Amino acid sequence: MNKTIITVVGKDTVGIIAKVCTYLADNNINILDISQTIVQDYFNMMMIVDANKSEKMLATIQSELKAIGEEIGVIIKCQQEDIFNSMHRI
């Protein structure tokens, strides 16, 4: 399985989780794990997903999630697990 990491960060507003999860469901992307916190008025969510059954390429998913983030006022990043791990290695 090729896991993908999605992070969502920004000012908390109604519907962030709904927008992201609806996009994932519509594109046959399965959520494997999810963590979400709100500190003061700032929203932070990290998801591990399986996009293997999606018909879209990773670059398309990244672009579409970025556009959703811009629409709702948050930053959404999407990376393959191995790249995410390499970038965050101590």
What attributes does this structure have?
globular, Alpha-Beta Plaits, alpha+beta, 3 helices, 90 residues, four-stranded antiparallel sheet
3D architecture notes:
With 90 residues, this protein is α+β, with helices and mostly antiparallel strands. The protein has a single domain, classed as ACT domain (Alpha-Beta Plaits). It is 37% helix and 39% strand. The model has no long low-confidence stretch (mean pLDDT 91).
Strand content is 35-45%
Overall outline = globular
Distance between the termini: 25 Å
Query: Can you say what the CATH homologous superfamily is?
Result: ACT domain
Give the integer mean of the pLDDT values.
91
Lateral arrangement of strands in the main beta sheet: 2-3-1-4
Based on the structure given, which CATH architecture is correct?
2-Layer Sandwich
How are the elements arranged and paired?
Elements: E1 3-11, H1 16-26, E2 30-39, E3 42-50, H2 58-72, E4 74-80, H3 81-87
Antiparallel strand pairs: 1-3, 1-4, 2-3
Summarize the structure.
With 90 residues, the protein is α+β, with helices and mostly antiparallel strands.
